[in-house]
Specification:
Elements: H1 6-14, H2 23-32, E1 41-48, E2 60-64, E3 75-78, H3 81-90, E4 94-96, H4 98-105, E5 113-116, H5 121-125, H6 128-131, H7 149-157, E6 160-164, E7 170-177, H8 182-198, E8 209-216, E9 222-223, H9 232-237
Helix pairs in contact: 3-7
Length: 238
């Protein structure tokens, strides 16, 4: 195995992987160690005490981050006629119906989010094997199956984040960029944690959040104390 570069070794030396710090300290350390030559994504990883095999413990939701994600989101919208025009006017990157479905089926286009009007779901449904594994299938509970395509596109472009627990009980999400200020990252983190807390299944026994870590694309992970998830994060959940 190749030896890590000097930059990565230096970053790892500054972070004790077994030590839990405060949320504020975690934000500072992750930002300080995001020294790559590109604007690294700041990511949060949350280990939950849930069993996703049970439908009532499948944590899933959507949340709008106050400072956006810093990522350019490419949006594909399934719509016709006036709704197609509205989607384009709102900033959708790809708009269509059967023609769009064919391009997606053939792997001809790249996109990050799919939105559809209700009447287009029979067309979208045929793409289940393509969109499902990528977590891109539109869902009315997440606001991605709607006749208000203007709002849906606007929300997706302005920093809306969808989340879903994995089979291992972990939720991952990008919550900003290394170029963000510490305050901006903290605000986004508190908002995201609040959404996770709000999505707690009623059947969960004992602790809900087991571990939380913050990291950048190329930097080391920094664990912070679960007990520190309070204040703004709790307020965001209310």
């Amino acid at each position: 195995m190749a030896r890590p570069g000097k930059r990565i070794r230096n970053a790892r030396e500054k972070v004790d992987p077994d030590r839990k710090v405060s949320i504020g300290e975690a934000v500072r350390l992750v930002k300080e160690n995001a020294t790559a030559k590109f604007d690294e994504t700041i990511e949060v990883s949350i280990n939950l005490n849930v069993d996703p095999r049970h439908a009532d413990q499948n944590v899933r939701g959507v949340v709008s981050l106050p400072n956006g994600t810093g990522k350019e989101v490419r949006i594909a919208v399934f719509a016709k006629d006036d709704k197609a025009d509205e989607a384009l006017a709102a900033g959708a990157d790809l708009v269509g119906a059967d023609d769009l479905a064919e391009k997606i089926q053939n792997g001809e286009i790249d996109f990050d989010r799919v939105i559809a009007t209700p009447d287009m779901m029979p067309v979208v449904g045929r793409l289940g094997k393509v969109l499902g594994p990528r977590g891109l299938m539109p869902n009315p509970k997440l606001g991605s199956v709607t006749n208000d395509v203007t709002e849906a596109v606007s929300n997706a472009k302005s920093g809306e984040v969808q989340f879903r627990v994995e089979k291992t009980g972990i939720v991952h999400a990008g919550i900003g960029k290394a170029s963000f200020s510490e305050d901006q990252i903290r605000q986004n983190l508190d908002t995201f944690l609040g959404a996770i807390i709000k999505a707690k299944p009623s059947g969960v026994k004992g602790s809900y959040v087991n571990k939380v870590a913050l990291t950048s694309t190329m930097g080391p992970g920094v664990r912070f104390d679960v007990a520190d998830i309070s204040g703004p994060a709790q307020e965001a959940a209310e």
